[in-house]
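Quick one: structure for this chain?
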Amino acid sequence: MANLKTKTELYLKANSKTWDNTKVSLQNNSDGNGDFISSWSYDISEPTIEQLASYETAGNTEEALQTVLKNRRNEYPSIIDQLDDIYHNGIDGWKATIKTTKDKYPKE
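Got it. Here's what it folds into:
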């Protein structure tokens, strides 16, 4: 299930806006009711629960992509090691090294 921040960011993007911590705040009171928008000061309407729910699938896709990208970042060799790989093995050797990680964490 996509989190509220992701769905809110998608709502903002669909309305030509970007996330700004000074214009929106999310909160969770640990009362079992989950996250909610606690403040909103954009020049567009605050999204309804139904509007946010419509971003569930897109939110899941975005979160899955961010997980893949994070996993790749964590597993790629350092830039220094990548440059050394290119020097010793050429671009094709470097591509093979990078492809291993890309294949391990494919984009859906």
